[in-house]
Specification:
The chain is an alpha/beta fold. It has two domains: 163 residues, Glutaredoxin (3-Layer(aba) Sandwich), CATH 3.40.30; 125 residues, Up-down Bundle (Glutathione S-transferase Yfyf (Class Pi), Chain A, domain 2), CATH 1.20.1050. Helix content is 42%, strand content 19%. A ten-stranded mixed beta sheet has the order 5-2-1-3-4-9-8-7-6-10, sandwiched between helices. Helix 1 packs across helix 9, helix 4 packs parallel to helix 9 and helix 9 packs across helix 10. The radius of gyration is 19 Å and the shape is globular. The structure holds glutathione (GSH).
Amino acid sequence: MADVILHHYAASPFAEKVRVALGLKQAAWKSVDIPNVMPKPDLMPLTGGYRKTPVMQIGADIYCDTQLIMLELDRRLPTPSLLPKGREGEARAITMWVDRNIFGPAVGVVMSQIPIEGRFGEAFKKDRSEFSGRNFDPERLRAALPMVRDQTYALLFIARAMLSDGRKFLLGAEPCLADCALYNPVWFIQSQLGETAAPLDQLPEIVAWSQRMKALGAGKRTDIKASEALDVAKAAKPGDTAVDSGDPSGLKAGQKISVTPDDTGRVPVEGILVGLTPDRVSILRSDPRVGDVVVHFPRAGFVVVPS
Ligand SMILES: N[C@@H](CCC(=O)N[C@@H](CS)C(=O)NCC(=O)O)C(=O)O
């Protein structure tokens, strides 16, 4: 198999979700450091416009969104599995809940307390306003602290309930996809504000669990330059894909479509439909720097329309 290349930056909590999974699998992988704001000139030839962090590349196959990145990692590196046997749906459902419900308030807890003005310039504020579709206003963020801290506490308390029978991880004795997902917001609070920053000071079971997650490490990482990753894509051919002809969308192989996240960073990516399953939509696109690449997205949370 071609190398796993992760395009990410150190402070990204969604990237940490993938890095800890690479640790769990003790995988060897290559790392490309990308900017935390647009422009991302070395990422765009690969994704065709998708701008979120992280992105996973394997040869000329580009995987967007951690929902799909984690499934693909598990398919390619199956041991130990991220999906406990017979509980795959449960692990994925908890992951969606964490990503869509806990991440936002946890980011609020961090952003309302770090010195935004000192740490980030105007470019960051402008970028995050465009990214989220609403004005990135440090004053408003600071005022929201009590509310987002309460929400984070209440939601993490539900996660804590899963650990209340003394199990080590959310679905049992071994860590799985759901644990990697929950580690994303918990790690973000810890890495920015401290290991037991509120509301974690009220949740010792979550802190103890986070220490077990941290111990998984991040696998064997080798840093490479973005240009090297682009050369890899150029030299490779995308893997095989197939379009499910009975898909309820009615979309057909060879059709030109666009794929857009339904929440943040809503930049449409256009290409030719070459793969469609209940879990993923794959489009073929071409770029002068990398030649033909196939960009894969999850179905849930993405708007797919003919273009
Ligand atoms: N649903 C996406 C969310 C990714 C996301 O929101 N990532 C943040 C960083 S943690 C981001 O893209 N921020 C803007 C940027 O990096 O340009 C996923 O699961 O990958």
